[in-house]
Amino acid sequence: MKLGSWKVKKMYIYLSAALLLLIGAGLYTYWKFEPSAHFRNAAIPVLAVPEQEAAAPTTQNETGQTDPSPQNPTPTDSKQTSFNILILGTDARDNEASRTDVIMLAHVNSDKNTISLISIPRDTQVNIPGVGYTKINHAHILGEMNGDTHTGTIASIQAVSNLFSCSINYYIKTDFEGFEHFIDTIGGLDINLDKPVKLTYGHKTFPAGDNHLSGAEALDLVRERKSLPGGDSGRQANQAMVLKEIVRTVIRPQNITKLPSLISQVREDILDTNLSDSDIISLAWMAKDMKEDDFQYVQLPGHSARAMDPIVKSNLYYWIPDMEEWAESSQHLLED
Fold first, then answer.
1. Which domain, by its residues, includes 14?
2. Same domain, yes or no, for 54 and 165?
């Protein structure tokens, strides 16, 4: 065999090996991060089920924190590709006890690339065992009083599971400071407002149209309620709008390449989550390919009322959920 011919063969062997490695790496990346493949192969946890159906002993999540879960934390269907994520925003600053100002339940179908986001008013009246009918945002502070901030998370997860008679699989919780800092880390948010929003306490008005908001300004927007025509309903809509814009901003080409460092920042700015790094990357991958019709947003139906609160022993404003209307109009959003 001629030396030149052997060199050519060696080159082809090396190129073939390199190509096989690239294909293998691509298949591994697809298997690991492509949303439906990733979550189909993951052991999706079940952190809470309605209390009337099952008790909730505890297990350790991968960050070493205690999570609520049923006796078997893995799904019964190994090909499950849909799950529920509870999103909590607390009003805590520093180490003070906190209530949940933002409560949203996201139903994710990674096979269909769809997300249904349900806003839950913080004043929603729910029955907390051992306490009675009180506001759902009291669940967190009651949990903290009986343990720590993660105990508050557990209590909030269980309250939402009971309300919707559904399982909760993942959760994300942040506070004012973490929210502000993360928004600033991704360069702020571009928000388009249908109408001007006047801040009740900020002595500022966000004009109708395009606004570029810093972290502090975005926080002001999602907290504003009194000046909005719909009151708390308007605030919930703004919270959903800001959440969607956070996702859009994170998956922009200039940010998607920074995702590993952004995940590290998420770990610093988010107080508590059981999503792994690969879960977060997979969800970002999914969001990148979503169209507007793939994202649905609803608010929990109901009506306003006043009632005696068993904790503060006085009449408080409540949002009384209409679960019959919910079952007729929107319950399917948690079943796809």
1. 3-33
2. yes
